[in-house]
Amino acid sequence: MTGPQPTHGRPSGMTFGPRASRFHGFVGVVRRHLHQGDLLVRRGGEQFLLLLRASHADVAVAEAIRRDFAQVEPGLPAASVSIGAVALNGRTAPAFRAHLQAADRALYAAKAAGRNSVRFAPAVV
């Protein structure tokens, strides 16, 4: 460990223990499905928000991530993920915050619907 990160209070270089393999597998799956300008935001712990450019933002992208992640470690029980996503249609700081909040609400709706589900937030204006 190389010392605390100034804004997050966690040691830099920190691993996720036995979950590290799945975490890296998840990131690999997401990278295969994202386009330039899309964002994956770590909200905390194992919670991630997906902000997709409006030109290709639909539930199919998030569903593909969910489906592919289930197969990230062949031979082991399927991994599950709940995803909250939103179409990213603004680049100003207030617009970005609104998109984060919308994706966060979608994530909690996905979690409330049960494990391994996707919810897409309504368009942010």
Polypeptide structure, described:
It is a single chain. By secondary structure, this protein is an alpha/beta fold. The chain has one domain: Alpha-Beta Plaits, CATH 3.30.70.270. The protein has 3 helices and 4 strands. The chain has helices at residues 20-33, 59-69, 93-112, and strands at residues 39-44, 47-53, 83-88, 118-120. It has a 4-stranded mixed β-sheet with strand order 1-2-3-4. Helix 3 links the parallel strand 3 (83-88) and strand 4 (118-120). The longest helix has 20 residues, at 93-112. The protein starts with 19 loop residues before the first helix and ends in a 5-residue tail after the last strand. The model is unreliable at 1-16 (pLDDT under 50).
Q: Using the 3D structure, state the CATH architecture.
A: 2-Layer Sandwich
What name does CATH use for the topology? Alpha-Beta Plaits
- The overall number of domains is 1
Residues in helices, as a percent range: 25-40%
Q: Sketch the major β-sheet.
A: 4 strands, mixed
Poorly predicted ranges: 1-16
Number of helices: 3
Mean pLDDT score: 79
Strand percentage lies at 15-25%
Q: If strands are numbered along the chain, what order do they take across the biggest sheet?
A: 1-2-3-4
- The top-level CATH class is Alpha Beta
* CATH superfamily membership: Reverse transcriptase/Diguanylate cyclase domain
